[in-house]
Amino acid sequence: METEVNVLALVKGEEKFIFLFDDENRDETLRQLARFAANPDLDFSWYDAAMLSRKIRETVLVESDEEMASEEFDSLSIDDFA
User: Fold this and answer.
1) How confident is the model at residue 2 (pLDDT cuts 50, 70, 90)?
2) Residue pair 53/30 in contact by the 8 Å Cβ criterion
3) Which residue in 33, 36, 39, 42 has the fewest CB atoms around it within 10 Å?
4) Nearest residue to 23 (alpha-carbon basis) of 73, 67, 69
5) Which domain holds residue 29?
6) Model pTM score
7) Residue 80 lies in a domain
8) Would you give the end-to-end CA distance of the chain in angstroms?
């Protein structure tokens, strides 16, 4: 089975923040956003962390919705359409 890699990017002036994550390291990516926001040497705010965290969480919801829809379609039979 192939592992899907999610890409999340933020460009602020000269700085570029690119995050690659899969299901297994999603939580670590969220923690890294907080570490970046707490670092005064980076132009990465708590607002940036919040917005990117929301995007990461949205990918979880979309994936679970797709999974549920797939399971529902798999359980359908021709009798369901009669």
Assistant:
1) confident
2) yes
3) 39
4) 67
5) 6-75
6) 0.68
7) no
8) 35
Characterise 47 by phi-psi region: left (phi > 0), alpha (psi -120 to 50), beta (else).
Answer: alpha
pLDDT of residue 1: 56
Residue 81: inside a domain, yes or no? no
- Cα separation, 11 vs 74, in Å, equals 41
Cα–Cα distances (Å) from 35 to 7, 42, 46, 56, in that order, read 18, 10, 10, 16
Residue 58 lies in a domain: yes
Q: Is residue 23 part of a domain?
A: yes
Tell me: pLDDT of 68 over 80.
Answer: no
Q: What are phi and psi of 68, to 5 degrees?
A: -65, -45
